[in-house]
Amino acid sequence: MRHFSEIHAIALDRHGEDGLAARLQTPNPPAELANVPADRWLAVMTRCVFQAGFNWKVIEAKWDGFEAAFHGFDIGRCAMMDDDWLDALLRDTRIVRNGPKIQTVRDNAVFLQELESEGGVGAVLGGWPSTAYIGLLDQLKTGGSRLGAMTGQYAMRFSGRDGFILSRDVTARLIAEGVIDKPAGSKSSMRAVQDAFNSWMDQSGRGLTQVSQILAMSV
C-alpha cells in the first residue's frame, strides 16, 4: 500500500492542482451536524433509497412532491404510518409509487426515533468517529431499512458528514494498493478498508471524504 502522498500525486497528474481542488468536498463539522433536524436526515435517507437502482433525475424532479406527501418527513408522523396512509401513497402521483421503498420511510423514521433517544440523530450520526466509520455503516444497515452498502454511504455523504463511498474507482484503487482483492462486503474486507483509510488520514491530515475522492480521482 503506497503512502498517500504518492496516490495524491497521481490524482494531481490526472486533474491538475486546480481541477483536483475544485472537486474536493469539505464535510460539515460534528457540532453543525448535531443541529440538523431529524426530518432532514430522514429526507436524505429517503432520497437515497429511492434513487438506488433508479433514474436520479426523476427523483429530483418529483422531490417537492415527496416532501409534501410525507409531511416534511416529520419522524413522529412518518413512524405512525398506517395502512390507510400507505394505500393513499401507493396512489399518489407526486411520488414514485414503489411499495417496499415507501415502507422504508416508516421503518427509518422508527430507527431515527431510537437515535433521538440515544442523544439525538445528528449527534449520533454526525458525531460517529471517522476512524470507526464502518461501525456507523453497519448501524445503518442493521438498524435502518435499505440503508446498507452504497445507499447508506451516499446518505451520509449527502447529509454532509465525513465518509467514504466505495465507488467503482475507489474500489479499483483499493485493489491496486492491495487493500482488498475484490469489492468489499465482508466484515474482514471492510475492516481492511477502514484500516487503510485510517492510515491515509493520518498521513494526509484529510478526512474520509477527501481521501475517498482523491482515491477515485487517481484512477
**Major sheet details:** none
User: What is the CATH third-level topology name of the largest domain?
Assistant: Endonuclease III, domain 1
If helices are DSSP runs of H or I spanning 4 or more residues, what is the number of helices?
15
CATH superfamily of the largest domain: Hypothetical protein, domain 2
What is the CATH class designation of the largest domain? Mainly Alpha
Low-confidence parts: none
Strand content: under 5%
CATH architecture of the largest domain: Orthogonal Bundle
Radius of gyration: 18 Å
Order of helices and strands: HHHHHHHHHHHHHHH
Query: End-to-end distance, in Å?
Result: 15 Å
Q: What is the general shape?
A: elongated
Helix fraction bin: 55-70%
- Domain count: the total is 2
Structural class: mainly alpha
Question: Could you give the count of β-strands?
Answer: 0
What would the average pLDDT be, to the nearest integer?
97
